[in-house]
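From: lab user (bench 3)
To: helpdesk
Subject: output format question, protein + fructose -6-phosphate

Hello, I'm new to running complex predictions and I'm not sure whether the block I got back is the full result or only part of it. Here's what I submitted:
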Amino acid sequence: MRIIRAKDYDEMSRRAANILAAQMIMKPNCVLGLATGSTPIGTYAQLVEWYNRGDLDFSEVTTVNLDEYKGLPRENDQSYYYFMNDNLFHKVNVRPERTFLPNGMEPDSDKACKEYDQIIAGTGGVDLQLLGLGHNGHIGFNEPGAAFEAGTNCVDLTESTIKANQRFFASMDEVPKQAYTMGIGTIMRAKKILVVVSGEDKAEIVKKAFFGPITPQVPASVLQLHGDVTIVADEAALSLI
Ligand code: F6R
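Helpdesk reply: Thanks, we reran it on our side. This is the complete output you should expect:
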């Protein structure tokens, strides 16, 4: 496990973008596993900047995202599909048909999960998986207690997540109660993993996940068992180690 210490969020974003860019340059037809959330926004912005300068080419890249809300149309600005278009896909020359997220509008969970696992397998496997880190150690939507070997699965969102999301929706009915997520087993099969973490509020979980015991109660702790993990974190997130 390699830890890259960045001064602040901007440097973290640049360092993480460097690793993704290196992957694309070394293997133009690579498969990138991507994440949403606030942490990677700066990383995507940096990739867009380098693309605009002519230094990056996404034309042969395939992307597979970690997760998507179940039942949320793609046009909804809270969907992860919308997020990815907004932050990256619409700003670079990635081919839309080579960008994949779980199909949130498939009501049959088994079907949606099986299809997504097939899509991932069909890409030949993820070369580099980008991950953010939840405050409770979740990766993707794999919350504490999630099975380490799982493939794509449908998760019930916790009451606190549903409540926190409420402010983004017009009514409680619209707030997603479930999500599809790549499982921990799928994440662990990526050839390389890149974790981005920022902020003092993540310091405790960084210590627990990467320096504590490996346990399903801290899903990210499983990454200690992966042979090629790079953590890019700012000083605040590393303040307890
Ligand atoms: C996003 C995802 C989540 C986030 C995590 C951290 O696709 O799967 O696991 O990476 O919740 O989120 P932020 O970056 O907002 O702190």
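A quick orientation on your result: The helical segments are 9-26, 41-52, 80-87, 109-122, 159-165, 184-188, 203-211. Let us know if anything else is unclear.
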